[in-house]
Amino acid sequence: MMRDLVLKNRSYRRFHQEVAIELETLTELVDLARLSASARNLQPLKYVLSCDPQKNALIFPHIALTAYPKDWRGPPEGERPSAYILILGDTEIRRSFGCDHGIAAQTVLLGATEKGLGGCIIGSIQREELRKALDIPPHYEILLVLALGKPKERVILETVGPNGDTRYWRDSEGIHHVPKRRLDDIIVG
Ligand SMILES: Cc1cc2nc3c(=O)[nH]c(=O)nc-3n(C[C@H](O)[C@H](O)[C@H](O)COP(=O)(O)O)c2cc1C
Q1: What is the rounded distance in angstroms from the CA atom of residue 4 to the CA atom of residue 58?
Q2: DSSP line for 60-74
Q3: Residue 73: which pLDDT band, with cuts at 50, 70 and 90?
Q4: How far apart are CA 139 and CA 46, in angstroms?
């Protein structure tokens, strides 16, 4: 079951934008992160939730929901995320956040996948612009943005080829392909 959930939990970048996500759903997902591991149990992460179209529109321009293919500028209106969870680090609790936010992000996404949703972790963020747009106080560091929605694309995992290229790509039918390294190539001892 865990393997099925992990396999289903892909990074999605195109969504049925018209399918709304309730604030209660976002709250349930953050509650999963709240219950997860945290270095020294300091729990320095805070969250901003967004599921209304006006607030979503303030966030989207400041995230790069794309990397390859280079000519794709991200999802058009109608295929954008229905909700976002911003993961913030409270610098009044800790100056650095280790991998707490990675654990939180994966936990939220696994929870979203279980609910039939999907999303993407976004680290490529125009942080100061986003801070201004949402009026986020300076003692919160913007660590990651999680985009969420009902996925509108098919994602296929495949094995990295002999040239070692790990770049994901999209075929002529719009299917998104993600190469993963072989198990033998990552266990080194
Ligand atoms: C820390 C982190 C930051 C990421 N930042 C971005 C990003 O800024 N934009 C984006 O489109 N995808 C981003 N991704 C998603 C990766 O591109 C994705 O995980 C990778 O292509 C593998 O696909 P998969 O998640 O379906 O296995 C990020 C993932 C991680 C873990």
Answers
A1: 34
A2: GGGB----SSTT--S
A3: confident
A4: 11
Pairing of strands 155-159, 140-149: unpaired
**Ligand 1, CB within 6 Å, residue ranges:** 10-11, 13, 64-67, 120-124, 155, 168, 178
CA of 26 to the centre of ligand 1 (A): 20
Sheet of 140-149: strands edge to edge?
45-50, 83-90, 140-149, 118-122
Q: Measured between alpha carbons, how far is 29 from 147 in angstroms, rounded to an integer?
A: 13
pTM attached to this predicted model: 0.97
Q: Are 149 and 117 a contacting pair, CB within 8 Å? A: yes
- Alpha-carbon distance 107 to 29, whole Å? 8
**Cα distance between residue 44 and residue 92, in whole Å:** 8
pLDDT of residue 189 exceeding 80: yes
Q: Which atom of ligand 1 is nearest to the CA of 124?
A: 8
Among residues 137, 13, 124, the alpha carbon closest in space to that of 62 is found at 124
Distance CA 58, CA 50 (A): 10
Can you tell me the distance from the alpha carbon of 51 to that of 28, in angstroms, rounded to the nearest whole number?
14
Q: What is the pLDDT of residue 72?
A: 78
Residue 46 carries which side chain, given as an amino acid letter? K
The pLDDT of residue 77: 96
